Amino acid sequence: MFKIKDLIKESKRLQKTIVFPEVSFSDRTLEAVKYLQKKKICKVLLVGDASALILRDKDLEKFEIVSPITFPDRKKLVKTLYEKRKDKGMTLEEAEELEKDPYYFATLLVECGYADGMVAGAEASTATTVRPALQIIKSKNKKPVSSCFLVYGNNKFLNGKALILSDCGVIEKPDSDTLCAIAEASVKSAKQFKIGMPKVAFLSYSTKGSAKSDDVTKVREAYEKFHKKNKDVLCDGELQFDAAMVPSVSEHKAPESEIKGDANILIFPDINAGNICYKTTQYIGGLNAIGPILQNLKKPVNDLSRGCNVNDIVILSVITSLQCEDEKKKGE
Fold first, then answer.
1. Bridge partners of 303?
2. What is the pLDDT of residues 254-312, one digit of tens each?
3. Distance between CA atoms of 264 and 266, rounded to whole angstroms?
4. Position 13 in a domain
5. How do residues 60-114 score in pLDDT, each as one tens digit?
6. Which of 125, 144, 225, 317 has the fewest CB atoms within 10 Å, counting from its CB?
7. Crossing angle, helix 126-136 and helix 102-111, to 10 degrees?
8. What is the CATH number of the domain that holds 234?
C-alpha cells in the first residue's frame, strides 16, 4: 500500500537543498517553505531580496535567502548561462540580464551545485518553469524530457494504491518511440516514489484492435517497442482506461493481458488526454495529483499546477528530494 508518510520520512533523512524562486510573490509557496523548514523535511533556499522578504514575514529571518543581483558567485552563474546558450546566439550581456530572472537564477543554482533541486510553477506557466531547465540542465542520454503526475488518495477505486500518469504536461504529440521513452522514464519514477511493482498500460480509445486508426497504431507500436526492450516489466497496450484499471472489464475485453486490469502507470497517447484525465481525477475524483514531475533531466527541477495548494508544494518538494538522491547514486 502506498504511504506518502514513507516518502516524507525518506526526504527528512536525505536533507536535500531545494530552491524556491517564487516565495517573493507566492503566498502558497511562503506557507509551504515555512512548513518544510519547521518539520525539517528538506533544506530550504529562497530567492528574493532578503530585506523585503523579512519585512513581509519576520519568520523568514531564519531562512537562507539569495538574490540574483547580490549573489557572491553571480559571475559564475552568468558565465554558465552564456556557455550553455552562446551557440543559440546569446551574448554575455544578454546572459547577465537573464540571470536576474528568478526562474533562470534558481535553475542555475541547481546546475552549479548550490542547490540540489528546484520547485516552482505555483505562479507561472509550465513553459516558464521548464524552459530554463531544458536550456541549462538538459536531458539525460539525449532522451526526451517528459512529465508525470503522482496520483493518490482515499478512494474506493484506488483502494490504497498510487498511480503514475504520463505525459500530462510537456510533450504534446509523442510518436511511438517517444511514448516508449516516456514509459521507461515513468517506470523509474514509480520506483523512486515507491508505488509498488510497475504495471504499465498504454492507453487508447481502442482495446486490442477494437478500433483502427493511425492513433491506435501509434499506441500499439509504442507498447510493442517498450515490451521488447523491457521484458521484466509487466505491460500491455493498446488498452482503454477501463480495460487497464478494472479487473472485471479486463477479463472481458483483454483476457490475456499481463496487467489484468491492475495498472499503476498510465501512458497517454498525447498531452490532451493526459492533462484532461489528471485534472478530472483531481477535481471530480477528489484525489491528490502532484506535478508535473519532470522526468529524465540531469538534475531535478519540478513544476506545479497553478491550481496547486500548500500541501501540493510540500509533497512536490519531497518528490524532488527523492529525485536528488537518485541522481547521486547514478554518479557514484
1. 120
2. 999 999 999 999 999 999 999 999 999 999 999 999 989 999 999 999 999 898 999 99
3. 6
4. yes
5. 999 999 999 999 999 999 999 999 999 999 999 999 999 999 999 999 999 999 9
6. 125
7. 40
8. 3.40.50.10750
pLDDT level of residue 327 (50, 70, 90 thresholds): low
The residue type of 19 is V
Is residue 211 one of the residues assigned to a domain?
Answer: yes
Do 160 and 133 share a structural domain? no
> What residue has cell string 503566498?
27
Model confidence at 57, in pLDDT bands (50, 70, 90)? Answer: very high
Q: Minimal CA–CA distance to 172: which of 139, 226, 130?
A: 130
Pairwise CA distance, residues 92 & 99, whole Å: 11
Closest CA to 76 of 39, 111, 26, 41: 111
Q: What percent of the chain has pLDDT over 70?
A: 98
Residue in the structure block whose three cell numbers are 546569446: 90
What global pTM score does this model have? Answer: 0.91
**Helices 126-136 & 74-85 angle (0-180, nearest 10):** 80
Q: Is 23 within 8 Å of 313 (Cβ atoms)? A: no
* Structural domain for 156, as ranges: 146-283
43-47 β-sheet, strand order: 64-66, 43-47, 17-20, 117-120, 301-303
Relative to beta strand 265-267, strand 163-166 is parallel
Dihedral (Cα; 163, 165, 311, 137), 10-degree rounding: 130
CATH number of the domain that residue 70 is part of: 3.40.50.10950
Distance, in Å, from the CA atom of 34 to the CA atom of 30, rounded to the nearest integer, reads 6
Q: Is residue 167 part of a domain?
A: yes
CB 206 within 8 A of CB 245: no
Residue 261 grid coordinates: 486490469
- Do 95 and 195 lie in one domain? The reply is no
28 and 54 fall within a common domain: yes
Q: Same structural domain for residues 134 and 150? A: no
